[in-house]
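Action item from last week, closing it out:
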Amino acid sequence: MTLAVAALIGGLASLAAIYSGNRDISAEVVTQILVGDYRQATAFEVYTVLENRVPRAICALLAGALFAVAGTVFQRLTENPLGSPDLIGFSNGASAGALAAIAFGGLGLSIVAGALMGGLLAVAAVYLLAWRRGVEGYRLLIVGIAVGAVLSAVSSYLLSRIDLSDAMAGYRWLIGGLAGRGWADAALGAAGIVVIVPFALVLHRSLDRLSVGADMACSQGLDVRRAQGLAALVGTGCVAVAVCLAGPVGFIALASPHIARMVSRRPGPLMATSAAVGAALLAVADLLATRLFPPHQIPAGVVTAVVGGLYVVWLLQHRIRRESSV
């Protein structure tokens, strides 16, 4: 039920984003364009709908789903409800990598490639520093926070080096957003889903068994290190593709698994439900980002950052009250 409701919300938000915008295009014309009838539409209207609104809406759904799966994986891997790519350094690494590509553009490195390399290097650094005959969740989280803080400082330094004309491009990689997404980005997201989903399905049962703790799971015959390694690869792959689509958008990876479990009232990783919730959250966030202050648009990451900060405060207070009542 939760999966269907989340999918419905995501679909409605996407349709609202496609049918509305700063450009005054009637719903009738948008519908005709979507069904392939361009007789009553101008070339600009066709371009706006098919090359701007539709791929952007698709990218929002794909990136939200990937962020949510990554959050589910990392929360189970770290055994911590705050375990999230936002906190283990990947997002900060992606920002630093993208800004490095902008600041040192003469190296011929694209911004997306820089973001991807920065994120992967950040995760590798976190795992190497946290490795002590295996990866323990709490240590991974603490090391990730420390590495993320260092990378945030690096990003601030790099931002001070780039020209003002490049600052807008750099800003997207600090907060995240979906402006300018096209069909090439949507194809990248779809390819990522096709590649990652089979591994996520294989991983699902192992993550469920890890919910009882590494020691208990090992006593039940689970190869814990192998499961943790696969989980790290799947989670990192999800975030890598999602960041390339939308930048380091916060909150989605953290909140989606919590909302899926809270609404479903079921234990376990709930990857499919979390993915649907994540897709709906980012679709709604991007819709709000483009419609709150017309004709101006703000990055979707600004919306998720505000909502996410309030959500983290609520989550911590809820956890404190629950522990104090035990």
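Closing note: The chain has 13 helices and no strands.
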